[in-house]
Amino acid sequence: MNPLIFTTILMTVLLGTMIVMMSSHWLMIWIGFEMNLLAIIPILMKKYNPRTMEASTKYFLTQATASMLLMMAIIINLMHSGQWTITKVFNPTASIIMTSALAMKLGLTPFHFWVPEVTQGISLTSGLILLTWQKLAPMSILYQISPSINLNILLTMAVLSILVGGWGGLNQTQLRKIMAYSSIAHMGWMTAVLVYNPTLTMLNMLIYIMMTLTMFMLFIHSSSTTMLSLSHTWNKTPLTTTLILITLLSMGGLPPLSGFMPKWMIIQELTKNSSIILPTLMAIMALLNLYFYMRLTYSTSLTMFPSTNNMKMKWQFETKRITLLPPLIVMSSLLLPLTPMLSILD
Amino acid sequence: MMTYIVFILSVIFVVSFVGFSSKPSPIYGGLVLIVSGGVGCGIIMNFGGSFLGLMVFLIYLGGMLVVFGYTTAMATEQYPEVWVSNTTVMGVFLLGLLMEVMLVLYVLKSEEVGVVFKFSGVGDWAIYDTGDSGVFSEEIMGVAALYSYGAWVVIVTGWSLLVGVLVVLEVTRGD
């Protein structure tokens, strides 16, 4: 793609999300979502083969449906309250429709079916943008309407998302689908605590974005999109196998690493609000996630499968230089001792 | 009948939307869009917005829909699908018509309709002139406000249209 056009379209994706996050008029928020959707379609379709086109079409259809539902919720809210500002949603029907629309945009169950298929059909860099930047805008709207969200619907969607994200990722060998199911599960964790303490949702979003960025960049660095291809990285850059190990265990939520911090805080906040069964279920279902991360580390860092000598060399083009990788790796594994700093948040 | 003109026009509006949502060939969809555009213009005009209604006719029907009609005529097939040629299309069209007829009967018969919002019968659709809109027409003041207080909206929508052109060109470029 022409670099100037590509820069313009990428800046429009950023502009769309910025407009969503900083507007106080519901119509401008809807315009921001549509601008974001329109501009990300050619980014998803960077290579022109039928898979990317199919993935972009699926993404466009689901997100456009979600935008239509959002518009309907905005209009019902307008009819019942007579004003367009975002403070809270004044009508339960509008609140339910808006929550469903934003859940469709995020990829929460039962609207999660597009996430693995779209993520698998596009290139690694596009998948990176899809799973990190595109989650910011709907989550910011959920944060802003959080006082008026129906708790039953949101918690049902959150728990089902954690279950589907863990269970659905078990049989995958394609790395992009694994990351997609991991995204579904993390969105479930984020929305579970949204009504109780929205600050923890933002904390989880921050740490999730750091870890997902790290994982995707490690995959881009070793140019691998399947588990088999990733298991050959010991041959090319043995150091990245250790880094993959650490980052994956952090994503699974194991204690001395920073991925433990959001899960710990969320479980603490839920138990403070006297719900015990729910965080227990969530923690147990996070084990499913941990299982397929561990399978990935097993084949990548911990074992070298027996293979013939000509299979040992990994063919790829020049190694891409990724500037932000070292700070991201450090941040996605060593942030846990900073947990007492959370007391300065609201 | 004239007091309930908005209600009648809105029924025709919904029926024409059903007509193109049941997916006949795009040429026939465009035909129904002309009808729905004209009816929508009528609805806006009944609320006093003559400028916006004229805008619908000129720009939407006379600009965008004409271009759509020409491009569809270039890309059409030998036997395009009408509503009666395909069982599925006719079934969906009749289903939509049936639901609209049932809704209209529900509105006409009962005193109060409370689906998502309450309105009490057909009388709510009649337009009352409250008379306190002052010297200026509200709708022209809205258009003026778009270019003064709403400058940010103009910038954003203008940028979206530009990026829309770039995106469409990029998507249809192929390799």
TrEMBL record, chain A:
Residues spanning the membrane: 26-45, 57-76, 96-115, 151-171, 202-220, 241-261, 276-294, 322-345
Highest taxon in the source lineage: Eukaryota
Key words of the record: Electron transport, Membrane, Mitochondrion, Mitochondrion inner membrane, NAD, Respiratory chain, Translocase, Transmembrane, Transmembrane helix, Transport, Ubiquinone
Main localization (coarse): mitochondrion
GO biological process: mitochondrial electron transport, NADH to ubiquinone
Residues covered by the NADH dehydrogenase subunit 2 C-terminal domain: 290-342
UniProt xrefs under Pfam families: NADH_dehy_S2_C, Proton_antipo_M
Cellular component aspect of the GO annotation: mitochondrial inner membrane
PANTHER family for this protein: NADH-UBIQUINONE OXIDOREDUCTASE CHAIN 2 (PTHR46552)
UniProt record similarity statement: Belongs to the complex I subunit 2 family.
Quaternary organization: Core subunit of respiratory chain NADH dehydrogenase (Complex I) which is composed of 45 different subunits. Interacts with TMEM242.
Protein name from the UniProt record: NADH-ubiquinone oxidoreductase chain 2
Taxonomic source organism: Equus caballus
Highest classification ranks of the organism: Eukaryota, Metazoa, Chordata, Craniata, Vertebrata
UniProtKB/TrEMBL annotation, chain B:
EC class (word): translocase
Keyword line: Electron transport, Membrane, Mitochondrion, NAD, Respiratory chain, Translocase, Transmembrane, Transmembrane helix, Transport, Ubiquinone
Catalytic activity: a ubiquinone + NADH + 5 H(+)(in) = a ubiquinol + NAD(+) + 4 H(+)(out)
Record EC number: 7.1.1.2
Bilayer topology: Multi-pass membrane protein
Recorded GO MF terms: NADH dehydrogenase (ubiquinone) activity
Transmembrane segments: 5-21, 27-44, 51-71, 83-108, 146-169
Record localization: Mitochondrion membrane
Its job: Core subunit of the mitochondrial membrane respiratory chain NADH dehydrogenase (Complex I) which catalyzes electron transfer from NADH through the respiratory chain, using ubiquinone as an electron acceptor. Essential for the catalytic activity and assembly of complex I.
Protein name, per record: NADH-ubiquinone oxidoreductase chain 6
UniProt organism field: Equus caballus (Horse)
Record lineage: Eukaryota, Metazoa, Chordata, Craniata, Vertebrata
